[in-house]
């Protein structure tokens, strides 16, 4: 399966850091990719851990960027949020919520176990219409800039290997075991249907 034929979704909690870093890299490598969040709202670092900035998914990356520049440009430049938002607005207009997407994918990659559980729950709650199989794979990626960057390379390498498989449905489990050994990280994997 060629990279352009493999339909990939990358999902994190707010469609800001981890999923967008992977979205950027995968699109640069020619993959048909979309990215999503699973949270009820988009949450970004605020002035204190208990004071996040909260936005609806309908808020554009540009509007979030302008809002944070207005609130405290030094803080959000120093913690990297403005740089992250600049990247995001160059990729797509706004964050997207996974539950709102009805598009089928061949491979859904999640960036933390809680998000994996939410994606699997969402897919199994839907009425299965086409019985098209989708592989859902999780690798835990810490939600910081450095780990998101490294995680994006791991996810990209995984997608490149998946695109070379003759039979994804039969061979993916073995490939994931190889990736676990190579990366030292556990991968969760399940199959759902559309």
Structure description:
By secondary structure, this protein is of the alpha/beta class. The chain has 2 domains: 7-39 and 97-193, Response regulator (Rossmann fold, 3-Layer(aba) Sandwich); 42-91, no CATH class. Helix content is 45%, strand content 22%. The protein has helices spanning 18-28, 61-71, 73-78, 81-91, 113-125, 145-164, 168-183, and strands at 7-12, 32-37, 42-48, 51-55, 107-110, 133-139, 187-193. The strands form 2 sheets. A 5-stranded mixed β-sheet has the order 2-1-5-6-7, with helices on both faces. A two-stranded antiparallel ribbon has the order 3-4. The longest helix is centred in the last third of the chain and has 20 residues, at 145-164. The model has no long low-confidence stretch (mean pLDDT 96). It catalyses: O-phospho-L-seryl-[protein] + H2O = L-seryl-[protein] + phosphate; O-phospho-L-threonyl-[protein] + H2O = L-threonyl-[protein] + phosphate. Pfam families: Ssu72. This is RNA polymerase II subunit A C-terminal domain phosphatase SSU72. It is found in: Nucleus. Its EC number is 3.1.3.16.
